[in-house]
Amino acid sequence: MSRQESDLCSLLVDETYGPLASRIYRALLLHGRCALPTLARHTHLDLKNLRHGLSVLVQQHLIYWYHPPEERSATYEANLESAYKLVRYGTYLRLSRDRHGPLAERIVLKILVSGHASDSDLTQLQDTAANSSATPVLQNGHKQNGRIIHESDLNKREISKTKVELLQAGLIAKVHESHFRTKEDNRLEAERDTRSVEDFAGDTKKVRSANREAFVDSVLDNWKYGSAVMVEAEEAPKKKRGKRKAEPQEPQAAIKRPRINEGTTGLLNGNSADYLGLSREIDAPHGDIVYSINHAKFDIILRSERLVDIAEQRICKATSRVYKTVLGLMEPHLRECRFVKPCDANDQEEDDPCVKPVSTADILLALDDFPEIYDSLGETQGAGSDSEDLGNPKKRRRKAEEDSKSPFDVDVGLDRFEREHEEDDGDDSDNDSAISEDEEDQIADLDYNPFQNGTGQGLTERDQAIRSHLLLLAQHPLGFLKRGPRQSGALETWTINFNKLIKNVQAQAITQTLSTRYDTQSVRLASLLAERGKLDDKTLSSLCLIKEKEMRTKLFTMQKAGLLELQEVPRDNARLASRTTFLYFFDHERCIRGLTEECYQTLARCLERYRHEREEVKTVLEKASRSDVIGREEKLLNAHERAALKRWKVVEERIWAQIGRVDEMVAWFRDF
Amino acid sequence: MAGLSKARSPTVRAESDAIMSDAPGASSAGSSKNAPSSSEGIKTAVYNYCLAQPKDTTFTQAGLLAAGLFPNNSIITLSHVMHQLCVSGQLKMQELNREIQWRLIAPNVTSSRIGLDREMQLVYDHIESAGREGMWSQRIYKSTGIHKVVMDRILKSLEQKRLIKTVPNYRHPSRKTYMLQSLQPQEDVTGGLFYTTGELDEQLVQGACDWIDWWVVGQSWWFPPSAEQPGRKRKLDAVQGSHRTTAAPSVTKEEAEDRRAVEFAKPRLRNQHMRPYPQNYANYPTIADITNALNVRGVVNGQTMKISDTLLLADILIWDGRLERLKVRAKSGGTKEVYRAIKEPLTLYRREPTKESKDHIEPAKANGLTEAPCGRCPVFDLCEDGGLVNAKTCPYFQEWLEI
């Protein structure tokens, strides 16, 4: 936790839930985990207020709390992640509206406002429709959206339908007791609930403890994703059941604690009873199920959206739409953007085991038709006579060759021979040792079409067109898409190495920051160092072709800003400056961390400025929000007040838009 | 001094010629009787013998003895004579595979060295040994052990005699590097194509980079034909038959250049017209193609570029975020690296400066962080709530909000 981050989070809490909550939150941030009496001492609050504030914070998932059975009192700890997510509430609402309609937005809003909501809370939505638009989170400019729906439409059935839709999409999840505890506490709790090592099968103690460890992990997993797993299980019960059975022993004895509430209804009934963990999902007094927002899923959706934008920027719109479909097909199988793999977290090249490959056929099925599929690659709509040829990539390519080649025939020619014979490629001789086997396969794979020489099953023009977009994505150096391993008889599949892709996008974000803050030459130096590793300035200047003097200034500026690092390697024991080699290097992780801190600080400053601006027009705002003034602003406000109000609206919009944009950077650097 | 050495050289030459003419007699006479004169005779004979051999021949002891130049094939005489010749700068001794060899020094070089004293010769030899790499003055001091004041005088006089010259060293611009007058400095001394007199020619680099970017854009992205003449090229193709390579260029070249000229006049608009080629497009330019194009157009001051030079530029363009490297399948079955321009580069370059700004570079598109005033704030680190610099009184925020 950095100072910038904690500052920002307490500001956000203060902005949204007022000074009482933020005072407690800040104290928790400052002093770490506290019990109630300690907290009272730190905050100088009486217990009544303190309890009140704590309950707000707990309800909003802004703090963790844990009450181990052997202790007398519970302890509290600040939750930075969910506090930061307050910035993203507006985005959540937009996403849920875009994907599942205005009603879904209402449901999400309800849950966001009250931290979590039970079934009965949600069915009462229509009663609270008018109130909900006055909540503070709506500053992001979504105010009017709630009013689109007429109250009469909101019958129970529709609400429950939308709710299930959201549940299935994973945007909301059932709340589990463990969601209120830190990771460490959850592990403690899970370990306490699990039998001792001796009770596990296994020849040696090592095996037994490994088995126990695996079991604890699976319990934790269940606690964390319980609801999501359950919904999936309802969709495909057989498949999930099979998987569960495959896991190592699941002693029923693991569930020592009784359920908090035995009477469960709705989705929890029946087939989900044997799910561990679900037994402790928090149920409301009336037997309702309680839902909360699944931030992880929103991150995934948000990431897909941003990736589609980047694909559009880098390739073209039609391709980005195809990409959107692919990502959409992958989303249901992803639980979190970043999977922490303790053993091989550094291995960038390895495929993420949790990304389920998508087959071409699925993509073809899922993709809506749109005209740009056919004509966005290398040809115009104007060339009507040729349109049927364009389906065939080879013909298209030949056409493209003509187009591009003819103007510069004078220049090329060195390997024109090679090009003429491009068509009949087939031999597998490999002369290029610089490229790894795997890459080689990938590239070679891209030329392979399983439908052309396989079973004779032809592809329609549409399929060909879509497939060429997929191939284009797979070819891109950013690594948008990766073609699955080629297997005879198997369907062609596509997957994404998110680790690699996100790292590339992060690098792009860094270079963009550098290029606006400094200049292109600084970008050049940073990318050069990122690619080549540690270099001294002599080598650097000969590679980047910048005058040495200028280059040193640029390097120094970047190093001072913490974007580059400098290593001193003394050549002898004297350690004199003149006898020392200075090696510059670029550390991606460190740079990302630094920039994230800067983003936090920027967000905090924006918020501070926002509050300051609001303070300046406070009286006008108060007047304008009076019930007798609303709707009659022209009459009751004087010109000066109207101007102030108008300016305020612009300022508000500008600052919040900026906060959203900076948050986008934070998301790339931290969450995706 | 220079005049003197020049004046003397023909005389020496004449002398040696004179000796050469009666050399056979002298050598055959068996000159052991009158030692001083015959020693001179043998010297001349050996020198002439060496001179008569093809250029760059090395002479070994055995070879010289076999030539029968020395009376009684005396090794002592041989070593004595050869030493004399070496001292007088006519031959050079070298060692190869633990065997001593001699090589002839060209008569004009010898003549130029005649006026040199010992120290000068020593310095000259050192500089000569460095060859095309040149020798740093400090290194000469160190290896010869001559005092700096004396050394400076020697170097100055050698320069005046046009025996050595200083060459700019791009790696160490402040170092004085000496080299024989007749040699051309090596590329790792001058820095290659992009350095003129040891200074990096940034404009040249920039120009070449821009040109490559511009050229690769046209090669790696498809531009729809302009609206007023749809299908013009197609018709032409049809008229001129199937053999596209010979007929079409005159028209399409202009057309393509026109198109791209438009794109580059309004850089931000260029990507609206850019369409990707399908994945199996075979005409993405390789590094050889780019080099070829650069050379045909004579972009770099009409000099011929090598692939390594272009690779340097291509790397720079990639680091600048203007090109990207793709790996595609080559016809040989392996893979080859090809280049594609990036559709929306970080900064765009205008071919011609516009009225609004004379700069060739269009400012970079900002991201979330750098758009906010804080992202570019010079006092960002000092800013804190309640501090001297804070968000409430921030003039940058004020400016940003008033836009």
Automatic annotation (TrEMBL), chain A:
Biological process according to GO: DNA-templated transcription
A Pfam family per the record: HTH_9
GO MF annotation terms: single-stranded DNA binding
Stretches the record annotates as Disordered: 375-456
Gene Ontology, cellular component aspect: RNA polymerase III complex
Residue ranges annotated for the RNA polymerase III subunit RPC82-related helix-turn-helix domain, each copy included: 8-63
Intracellular or extracellular location(s): Nucleus
Keywords: DNA-directed RNA polymerase, Nucleus, Transcription
Biased composition (Acidic residues): 421-444
Function (record text): DNA-dependent RNA polymerase catalyzes the transcription of DNA into RNA using the four ribonucleoside triphosphates as substrates. Specific core component of RNA polymerase III which synthesizes small RNAs, such as 5S rRNA and tRNAs.
Record-stated family: Belongs to the RNA polymerase beta chain family.
PANTHER family, per the entry: DNA-DIRECTED RNA POLYMERASE III SUBUNIT RPC3 (PTHR12949:SF0), RNA POLYMERASE III DNA DIRECTED -RELATED (PTHR12949)
UniProt-recorded name of the protein: DNA-directed RNA polymerase III subunit RPC3
Native organism: Ramalina farinacea
TrEMBL record, chain B:
Compartments where located: Nucleus
Keywords: DNA-directed RNA polymerase, Nucleus, Transcription
InterPro entries named among the record's database cross-references: RNA_pol_Rpc34, RNA_pol_Rpc34-like, WH-like_DNA-bd_sf, WH_DNA-bd_sf
A GO biological-process term: transcription by RNA polymerase III
Superkingdom in the source lineage: Eukaryota
Biased composition (Low complexity): 21-39
SUPFAM superfamilies with a match to the protein in the record: Winged helix' DNA-binding domain
Entry-linked Gene3D superfamilies: Winged helix-like DNA-binding domain superfamily/Winged helix DNA-binding domain
Record's GO cellular component terms: cytoplasm; nucleoplasm; RNA polymerase III complex
Keyword Nucleus: yes
Region annotated Disordered, chain positions: 1-39, 227-252
Keyword Nucleus: yes
Family per similarity comment: Belongs to the eukaryotic RPC34/RPC39 RNA polymerase subunit family.
Record's function text: DNA-dependent RNA polymerase catalyzes the transcription of DNA into RNA using the four ribonucleoside triphosphates as substrates. Specific peripheric component of RNA polymerase III which synthesizes small RNAs, such as 5S rRNA and tRNAs.
Name the UniProt record assigns to this protein: DNA-directed RNA polymerase III subunit RPC6
Species for this entry: Ramalina farinacea
Phylogenetic classification of the source organism: Eukaryota, Fungi, Dikarya, Ascomycota, Pezizomycotina
